[in-house]
Specification:
By secondary structure, the chain is mostly helical. Helix content is 47%, strand content 10%.
Length: 217
């Protein structure tokens, strides 16, 4: 994997790998457009702004706003990373993929069966309090997959866990298409999962590599 560093304030909004209407009828084009161009871009802009302010704080040795800036970087940075994963683990229905061997075997090891995993993931994500994320992650300390609830995505849930599949359950992700029917949205989203991408992320995570391409962050 290419070695690189993203300098403070230089994060970019990653382009989508498909048109805005490519996820229909599961997710409407207007939802994708607003979600990507407004909400995700807002995280990128907020992250860049806070990082540059922190650069100036170090330069001027003035850390009077350190609590605010650290929170802004945690909130916007986490939102940027999770959204960057979210867009890539979905694919149009005409490019639907099947679950791959490594992912399937690790799911069996970690959850007993694919059906048990799917049921737990959907229930977990649908029960996130207020806004947040449902996350399937590789925990290198335990050497197995875990399902996490990120009720406030700036707060860590389990140290070192690497997300490989995420579902956004903030209302802006589904309200235009599903109103308040969050669980219906999560169930429908299963039809869009790009298992090729999930497999690739899991393989990298198991090798100790955070599976984020340069274009994602």
């Amino acid at each position: 994997m290419e070695n690189y560093i993203i300098l403070p304030g230089q994060h970019k909004l990653p382009p989508l790998a498909y048109p805005y209407n490519a996820l229909e009828p599961i997710i409407g084009s207007e939802t994708v457009k607003i979600h990507h161009n407004k909400h995700h871009k807002g995280y990128v802009d907020g992250l860049n702004k806070a990082e540059l302010q922190l650069v100036n704080a170090r330069k001027n040795k003035d850390f009077s706003l350190i609590k605010y800036l650290e929170n802004e970087i945690a909130f916007n940075g986490s939102g940027h990373i999770l959204h960057s994963i979210y867009w890539t683990i979905m694919a149009p229905l005409n490019k639907k993929t099947q679950i791959k061997p490594l992912t399937y075997n690790q799911i069996l090891t970690s959850f007993g069966s694919f059906e048990s995993f799917k049921e737990q993931f959907i229930e977990s994500a649908s029960k996130v309090e207020a806004s947040g994320w449902g996350i399937l992650a590789w925990n290198p300390a335990w050497r197995r997959l875990v399902i996490l609830q990120a009720e406030k995505h700036q707060n860590l849930t389990q140290w070192s866990s690497i997300p490989i599949l995420v579902v956004d359950v903030w209302e802006h992700a589904y309200y235009l298409d599903y109103q308040n029917k969050r669980k219906e949205y999560i169930n429908a989203l299963w039809e869009l999962i790009n298992w090729d991408e999930v497999e690739k992320r899991l393989l990298l995570a198991m090798q100790g590599i955070t599976p984020l391409k340069k274009v994602y962050i």
